[in-house]
Specification:
alpha+beta; Helix Hairpins; Heat Shock Protein 90; 5-stranded antiparallel β-sheet; 5-stranded mixed β-sheet
């Protein structure tokens, strides 16, 4: 009898630990997505929710009410919380489920990630084992003890293999993954989740290696030119005109290096989630007009007679004006380089967002460039047509980083409204809290016009 009880407790504990480990790994994956700016549930999740205060459902893998009550959400916002309960109308979880509520901080907004796994198989297994032990333990205690030990070892053998393989995996072995059994049980799901996590880690390291290679390549050219100009200046120290030309060229390369270093710093801070934003109520329409007047700003050439039109109502949003102006200036400058006759900047409120569309009547983005237009060092300018080597390929990447730091989205397309390229920026009107009374009054006046 004692051996049967020990077998039951040991097997139950191992199964519970396996479920908890799987839930923690899934919650960690979703937290990593949120920290990278993607506040959404992946399609492969059986059941998961992202809950805001209240609690309110920010995103869910299946239509369902909030999995936590207000009191449970308050507890989960401070520490991990495990719950065993049934979630109605959720076939993936069955009649019994275990939930893990994990706190996540998305900027200044507290969120709780809830992931769930079915415990029906565990419950049925426990029931059957208890029945067998209760009936046969007086006669077959020793046999059941040995069988239970073998069964537990067989059930946990895939976990041991995954653990051994995880210890052996290193960055030098690209593509190596954990073995896991076929099926849809918790161990198989844990193996798939861990392998998906390894895929994302490997892709992240590959992107960082590519970033370092590209950054080194971009820095090498201005440094070489700067060194050559300084050497020429030393050789031509007796010719004042030649010396001045060499020094001016060296200064241009130094400014280029400083600009590139600033761009790399912005991207690094944005990737780490530490891009500083000084938000205040700003009229986005006025900001767009200022950016349009600034024009090309030394980043390229525009066609003669090119017109830049700004339309839309005055729309107030709580943003960092300097960063948003940088976004619009970059987009307008990029559009002017490839437009034939017209660039259009349109500002419009849409629900709780402000939408800024920058379009041109040029050739548009090449189809192959659209999926990676906002990646670093893609050289969108050179790819779109008439010029090569224009910039380091960081302009659109910086624009995307600033927009995402504001909690917004950005997309690129070809076609309407002018037939060429079109970049759409969507920002929340108020990300940080209530707008001051004077700002609300200005917004109301703008809407009435």
């Amino acid at each position: 009898m004692l051996a049967g009880i020990l077998i039951y407790l040991d097997l139950n504990g191992e199964l519970q630990h396996t479920i908890n480990t799987g839930l923690e790994a899934r919650a960690a994956d979703i937290e990593s997505d949120i920290n990278s700016g993607r506040v959404a549930i992946r399609q492969e999740e059986a059941f998961a929710q992202i809950l805001g205060p209240g609690p309110t459902v920010v995103d869910s893998s299946a239509p369902a009410p909030p999995a936590l009550s207000a009191g449970e959400w308050a507890q989960a916002s401070r520490h991990d919380l495990f719950l065993d309960r049934r979630i109605p109308h959720t076939p993936a979880l069955g009649r019994r489920a275990r939930l893990l509520a994990h706190p996540v901080q998305a900027g200044d907004r507290p969120l709780v990630v809830v992931v769930g796994a079915s415990t029906v198989a565990v419950f049925r297994g426990r029931e059957r084992l208890a029945l067998i032990l209760a009936i046969l333990s007086p006669l077959l205690g020793a046999i059941l003890s040995a069988g239970g030990w073998l069964l537990a070892g067989a059930a946990l053998r895939p976990v041991r293999r995954m653990s051994q393989e995880a210890d052996a995996i290193s960055l030098a072995q690209a593509g190596r993954r954990l073995p896991y059994p076929e099926g849809e049980d918790e161990i198989a799901q844990l193996g798939r989740t861990l392998n998906a996590m390894l895929d994302r880690i490997e892709a992240a390291f590959a992107r960082e290696r590519m970033f370092l290679d590209d950054a080194s390549h971009e820095l090498r050219t201005p440094i070489s030119v700067l060194r050559a100009e300084l050497e020429v200046a030393l050789l031509e120290s007796g010719d004042r005109a030649a010396l001045e030309r060499s020094l001016r060229s060296a200064l241009e390369e130094a400014e280029r290096l400083a600009h590139l270093a600033e761009d790399l710093l912005v991207l690094a801070r944005a990737s780490a989630g530490r891009l500083p934003l000084r938000r205040r109520p700003v009229d986005v329409r006025t900001l767009a007009e200022q950016a349009a007047r600034r024009g090309v700003n030394g980043t390229g050439r525009s066609a003669p007679g090119l017109a830049v039109a700004v339309d839309g109502p005055a729309t107030l949003a709580v943003v960092d004006p300097a960063r948003l102006e940088q976004v619009i200036t970059n987009l307008v400058g990029n559009a002017r380089r490839f437009a034939r006759r017209q660039v259009q900047v349109r500002v419009r409120p849409e629900g709780d967002d402000v939408v800024v569309t920058v379009a041109d009547d040029g050739p548009g983005f090449p189809p192959a460039l659209l999926p990676v237009a906002f990646d670093r060092f893609t050289r969108a300018e050179a790819a779109r047509g008439h010029e090569t080597g224009a910039g380091a390929g960081l302009g659109l990447a910086i624009v995307a980083a600033i927009v995402r730091a504001h909690g917004g989205t950005i997309s690129a397309a070809n076609g309407p409204p002018l037939g060429g390229a079109s970049v759409i920026v969507r920002l929340p009107i108020d990300e940080t809290g209530p707008v001051p009374d004077e700002a609300r009054a200005q917004r109301g006046a703008a809407s009435s016009e």
